[in-house]
Amino acid sequence: MLQEDFFKYQTQTTPHPLGLEVSHAQGSYIYDTQGNKHLDFVAGVSACGLGHCHPKVINAVKEQLDKYMHVMVYGEYIQQPAVEFTKLLSEHLPKNLETTYLVNSGTEAMEGALKLARRYTGRSQLIAAHHAYHGNTMGSLSVMGYEERKSAFRPLIPDVSFIEFNNEADLEKITDKTAAVVLETIQGGAGFILPKEGYLKKVRQRCDEVGALLILDEIQPGFGRTGKLFAFEHFECTPDILVIGKGMASGLPVGAFVASKELMDSLQESPKLGHITTFGGNPVIAAASLATLREITESQLIAQTLEKEKLFRTLLVHPLIKEIRGKGLMLALLFENREIVNHLVLTAAKKGLILFWLLFEPKAVRISPPLTISEEEIAEGCDQIIAILNAYKPSAVN
Fold this sequence. Notes:
Layout: H1 2-9, E1 22-26, E2 29-32, E3 37-40, H2 43-46, H3 55-65, H4 80-91, E4 99-103, H5 106-121, E5 125-129, H6 138-142, H7 147-150, E6 160-163, E7 178-184, H8 199-210, E8 213-217, E9 241-244, E10 255-259, H9 261-265, H10 283-298, H11 301-315, E11 323-327, E12 330-334, H12 338-350, E13 353-354, E14 356-357, E15 364-367, H13 375-390
């Protein structure tokens, strides 16, 4: 059986994976091999912004497959999908974010951004935030603000310090020894925590004062999820280096970091090949990225995202829901304890609704559906959530 082979041959990340056996996926639904459909309120953990198998993305991928796939390591050959994508992206970003280095995942993009900051500034200190999540490779892990998740892998890269997100007093820790401050524009794993009014602007100001670079991680909130193409647009704060991924290619593996040409050129010399990748800028994935960006920027999806957020907040009113954090379609339901969270996620899975946990906040349930989700589908899923919460009975232990 496929399930037995899954557990035997494919490495697991937890002792108890959800184990949904997937047949196919379309739009807002994933279908299992038993013929059941599951309404997707997670979108591959914010990766499938246009839903599953969006026809424009599928067509772009098929057209590219008929031409060529991998032909050369990154940066040597001129390949139309990558050039067109990076050009279009620059047209939707501030002027200083003009050139893009394409890689294979968000964590690889963060690795490149950290290297770029140290190389350009000649400084070594990196400052990140407590409860931050930027990926799981060694550099990204080093700027993770959650000791329980990284202590087993020490020693990590040196000269990393931490500040409290939204704590202005901590900004004094940013000094002329700091290469870069690394922040999620909206803290994801910590529970979809928004920056307080003016906080990111003050971080930007402090970085300018001491000559440090500001890296903003938009891997999760990017590509329309918060009601802007990128979340930093809500907060009047432009980074020196922008890190992106997830929703960029509608479900294909991708990442990138974006900066000025002046910054990026520092990776060309002393040493040459300061950052390299074999598959970064892969033409098939670049074609998917281009189709995705065109659809997001040429449609009404971004504007509709804020209206859909209002609908979620209107429908998800229940005594057990203590708070709804986040922005746009990056929302987290906060509960009193993890027992309610587990009950909701696991019961919903049995009833054909896909919800998920957050990394560091055990009392939160993730809601990050495709941007293409309909109001009817939102209502359907919210009705399920309310019904499950109505039926919840605390255990004797709780």
